[in-house]
Amino acid sequence: MIGLEINNLGVVLSGREIVRGASFTVKPGEIVGLIGPNGAGKSTVIKAILGLVEKASGDVLLSGVGTDEFEAKERARKISYVPQGAPIHWPLTAERTVALGRTPHLNPWQDMRDEDQTAIRKAMKQTDCWHLKDRLVTNLSGGERARVMLARTMAVGAEYMLADEPTASLDPFHQLQVMDIMKAQAKAGVGVLIVMHDLSLALQTCDKLVLMHDGAVLAKGTAAEVLTDENLKTAFGVAVTRWSENGLEYIAPRAAG
Ligand code: ADP
Ligand code: MG
Asked: Which site among 127, 138, 162, 208 is 20 to 30 Å from 3 CA-CA?
């Protein structure tokens, strides 16, 4: 099957079962939102897909081939990753940070080629950080840094992109911009898996949702199937208010009564 398939994934860390029997699929051109409360296991699922944590059970298939079969570099070319709130310790310029996204395309001692420079510039312009190219990433604001990290991931040009809370430290304008970028990526055929907490944004942007709770997938499917009052109460312990305006649907949490 074409797509990124997560089958019955289980992860055990420090003797604790952190993820249990998680199954879902990300198809090319699709945005899948991975939602759920803090500690539900979302980041762990993403890391297991990337091979950054060991799977205790299950498998991850890329167009039918187990990702364990791929060399690390090949996997890095096929699946790119925006880590959650990754600290940056090295005082690299923003442009050189984004250039790291081209690493999987180059031999260890190879210089950047024109196509690499083009990919870097395009990704930085799309994420509105080209004007920051000569600034040190260690001196950028959280939101500026988040956009540089997103550009680094986009510069990979992978078939699948896994983004772990890429909107977390962004102002509303840049949150919407990141979601527009995700839509453009999907439109260009990239399969996008995105972890997010804003339910309205998830509802408006994602083609499918996967709701995790306590290490397991509580619900998956369309927003209508997943964002039910009952599922939101179980997963987040909240009630919600829903409305629509100008053709967009909104969902706002409130304390469960
Ligand atoms: P989420 O991204 O949904 O907030 P995580 O996947 O980061 O959740 O974490 C899920 C659970 O696994 C949390 O309870 C967290 O404390 C625990 N956890 C994460 N990493 C480790 C680890 N290396 N060892 C033990 N427990 C961990
Ligand atoms: Mg997380």
From this structure: 127
3-state SS class at 160: strand
pLDDT for position 170: 86
Domains identified in the chain and CATH numbers: 4-88+157-255 (3.40.50.300)
CA 240 / ligand 2 centre spacing (Å): 23
Q: Is the CB of 189 under 6 A from ligand 1?
A: no
Describe the chain by its helix, strand, coil percentages, rounded to 5. Answer: 40, 30, 30
Ligand 1 within 6 A of CB of 246: no
Tell me the whole-structure pTM to 2 decimals.
Answer: 0.94
pLDDT of residue 84: 83
126 touches ligand 1 (CB under 6 Å): no
User: What is the C-alpha to C-alpha distance for residues 156 and 161, in angstroms, rounded to an integer?
Assistant: 9
